[in-house]
Write a structure and sequence with these properties.
205 residues, alpha+beta, Glutaredoxin, Glutathione S-transferase Yfyf (Class Pi), Chain A, domain 2, 2 domains, 4-stranded mixed beta sheet, 9% strand
Length: 205
């Protein structure tokens, strides 16, 4: 039994954590939940994540939820994978900024595109900008590339890259010329390919 257990569902945001675990390169177990059977709302899983959402990660008996938090934790817990920016590096703040940008700005803006509101919300009230503005921000960052933090691939690329890969696939993120080569660089990573193959195998079952 591995020290790491991923509570997973296919398809779901847990795919991002699966990719991160493959990047880390440590052994992990998968506890598969069937969302159509409401496994995520059963007492056993609610004891792991009271929100009843996937993913969750358990490491040595401690449960962690929220995709960006899990990815940040794994990057720090396994420094040999070089997926984090050191706490002594001034760029650490920018790295953390991208990790927070994913769930607090980019994902909500994508949701607004997928499920439009009757009236556009005031940015000052919701705390993020429209998807066109956010797409420009990400595009400008990856244009300097090859990754968000320059030459170093980090957990921030797993979090933001997952959103860009998914959003462009379903045309929920405006097209920018910088996105296609960025997505290609991410998709070429062996860890991303392993994660995708494993999830495709699960989906086919």
């Amino acid at each position: 039994m591995a020290d790491l257990t991923l509570y997973h569902a296919v398809p779901s945001r847990a795919a991002t954590v699966r990719w991160m675990l493959e990047e880390v390169g440590q052994p992990y177990d998968v506890h598969l939940l069937k969302l159509s059977d409401n496994d995520q709302l059963k007492p056993g899983y609610l004891a792991v994540n009271p929100q009843g959402k996937v993913p969750a990660l358990v490491h040595k008996g401690v449960a962690i939820a929220e995709v960006a938090a899990i990815c940040a934790y794994l990057a720090d817990a396994f420094p040999d994978a070089r997926l984090a920016i050191s706490a002594t590096d001034p760029r650490r703040g920018v790295y953390l900024q991208w990790l927070f940008f994913g769930p607090s700005c980019l994902e909500p803006a994508i949701s607004d595109r997928a499920f439009p509101r009757k009236e556009p919300p005031r940015a000052s009230a919701i705390g993020y900008r429209d998807i066109d503005t956010l797409a420009d921000i990400v595009a400008a960052a990856v244009a300097k590339g090859p990754f968000l933090m320059g030459e170093q691939f980090t957990a921030a690329d797993v979090v933001i890259g997952s959103a860009i890969r998914w959003g462009t696939m379903f045309k929920l993120i405006p097209d920018r010329p910088q996105f296609a080569p960025y997505v290609e660089r991410l998709a070429a990573r062996p860890a991303a390919q392993r994660a995708d193959a494993k999830d495709k195998a699960l989906a086919a079952q």
